[in-house]
Amino acid sequence: MTRAWFAGATSLEPSLIGSASFDTMIAQRIRELGLRGDADYAERLRIDSTEAARAHAMVAVPETWLFRCSATFETLRERLLRRRMAGQETVRALSAGCATGAEPWSLAVTFAAAGFPVAGISIDAVDLNPDALDAVPRGRFGRLGVREAIPAWAQHFVRSEREDLVVDPSLRATITVRRADLFTFSPLGCYDVILCRNVLIYLAKPARERLVRRLVSWLTPDGTLGTGHADNAIDHLEDLAPFGPTGAFLFERAALPSGHVPMSVPSAPPSPPPGRREAPRVAVAAATAPRAGSRSFTRRDELDVALRREPNRLDLLLELAELHVAAGEIARAEDAFRRIVYLDAKHEHALVRLAELAERQGKSELAARFRGRALEAHLEREE
Ligand SMILES: C[S@@+](CC[C@H](N)C(=O)[O-])C[C@H]1O[C@@H](n2cnc3c(N)ncnc32)[C@H](O)[C@@H]1O
């Protein structure tokens, strides 16, 4: 049975829709609601925003982790540090599609590390998945929420507690959780920073472009928009220009207002805000998550050696694959992700990453196949 109408009702990328488990899930939902069939459910999605949110969340994966794509946060910190030094006292941000909160918490730490006082930081954490949003206030992240290096400047704000990382609870006040659909959300003011990462990839092109236009309209004149590495929807918007290293995926208005503070790398790392207690450093981050640059190369060598001894270790392969991505070595990253999928055909993260890498290279059919498989794996896990 084809459920192409679902794409129209939810703005989702049509290739994500139509797997066997997707059909089962929708059929089950139709039964649970006591509806007669697809037409009734399509109408329900149109008039019932909660059901539409639920349906969307069944397909959009709430996967996230702290300092995901750390170059993004590194570059934001540098920019915000300059602005703080130039006298800016407040910073407003939107985490659009925040999932379980790793992104807004990473932003909070980034702004605090740039010297903004807690009272001057305000972050809206928006998502339409209520289950994911429940986790946001906790600021606690387990193994799946910690997959990349915690930058050195951020470790001050993070401590390990048993298996988890916990972000400094004093930053909780900076985050406001809002359950909303980004297509209907109306913010109370403009944002200096908007991150909308790994959300656009799930949307069909017209919806992607519509959402990006909305996001851009919510930016301050010198605001920054960040996307995920596979969210290649904004190339077409002439009023945006990329800035920072290519791996940061940050954009600003092409014609910047006069008085704009350009991005520049500060000579020294910022001191923590006055009066901040010394939090214990995060041992787990150093052990499991290498830093960028030459140290990451060394870590890749180590991983190569370790994998020669234990070639089927998925955690090592995953770490290696992510380091290859961070180093821009896409072919090697693909090899590592493919090896993971060879060992575990339902490895959702590796499948999503393969989809993203294929998309990045313009291989949209291949990307759609990997996304379909990722979706299948995701839905099976939830059953
Ligand atoms: C893959 S997660 C990405 C989380 C985070 N931005 C990151 O990159 O780590 C995508 C999240 O976007 C949310 N989302 C997708 N479409 C949305 C929409 N139209 N409005 C609000 N949230 C949405 C999903 O519910 C999901 O939690």
Task: Describe this structure in a few short sentences.
This protein has 383 residues and is an alpha/beta fold.
Described by strand count, sense and barrel closure, the largest sheet is:
7 strands, mixed
Q: Rg, please? A: 21 Å
Helix content: 40-55%
Gross geometry: globular
Structural class: alpha/beta
| End-to-end distance | 20 Å
Total number of strands: 10
Element-by-element helix/strand order: HHHHHEHEHEEEEEHEEEHHHHHH
The order of strands across the largest sheet is: 6-2-1-7-8-10-9
Figure out the total of helices.
Answer: 14
Please name the defining characteristics of this protein.
alpha/beta, Rossmann fold, seven-stranded mixed sheet, 13% strand, 383 residues, binds S-adenosylmethionine, three-stranded antiparallel sheet, 14 helices
In words, what does this structure look like?
- This protein has 383 residues and is an alpha/beta fold.
- The protein has three domains: 4-59, no CATH class; 70-253, Vaccinia Virus protein VP39 (Rossmann fold, 3-Layer(aba) Sandwich), CATH 3.40.50.150; 290-382, Tetratricopeptide repeat domain (Serine Threonine Protein Phosphatase 5, Tetratricopeptide repeat, Alpha Horseshoe).
- It contains 14 helices and ten strands.
- The strands form two sheets. A seven-stranded mixed beta sheet has the order 6-2-1-7-8-10-9.
- Strand 9 (240-243) and strand 10 (250-253) form a beta hairpin.
- The chain is globular and about 60 Å long.
- Bound molecules: S-adenosylmethionine (SAM).
SSE diagram, text form:
Layout: H1 4-10, H2 20-32, H3 38-47, H4 49-59, H5 70-85, E1 91-96, H6 102-113, E2 121-127, H7 130-134, E3 140-141, E4 158-161, E5 164-167, E6 175-179, E7 191-196, H8 205-217, E8 219-227, E9 240-243, E10 250-253, H9 283-288, H10 294-309, H11 314-326, H12 330-343, H13 348-360, H14 364-382
Helix pairs in contact: 2-14, 3-4, 5-6, 10-11, 11-12, 12-13, 13-14
The structure holds S-adenosylmethionine (SAM).
S-adenosylmethionine (SAM) binds at residues 56-57, 60-64, 68, 97, 99, 102-103, 126-129, 132, 181-183, 197-199, 202, 228.
